[in-house]
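USER:
Working in pairs, take the chain set out below, taking as long as you need, and write a paragraph about the fold.
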Amino acid sequence: MIKKFALLATVAALFVACGSSTTENMENKADEAANSGQELLDKAAAEAEAAAAEAAKAAEAAVDTASAAAETAIDAAKEAAAH
């Protein structure tokens, strides 16, 4: 009878040992996935910030171009009115 309990205790100990290793592996994989996800979010945020900066430059250039065109049109209208 004692041998049966010893065998059962050994099997239970192996089960617990293997189970904790699996839990540990799952936690490590979850941490790795979280870190990977954070890296992807950081990269996406940096790319979005760069795209926003480029869009701001393009908008500024468009405003400058429109302003120059308006000034040219005003000057042309003044010149036409003067003649």
Notes: The helical segments are 2-82. The radius of gyration is 36 Å. The chain has a mean pLDDT of 85.
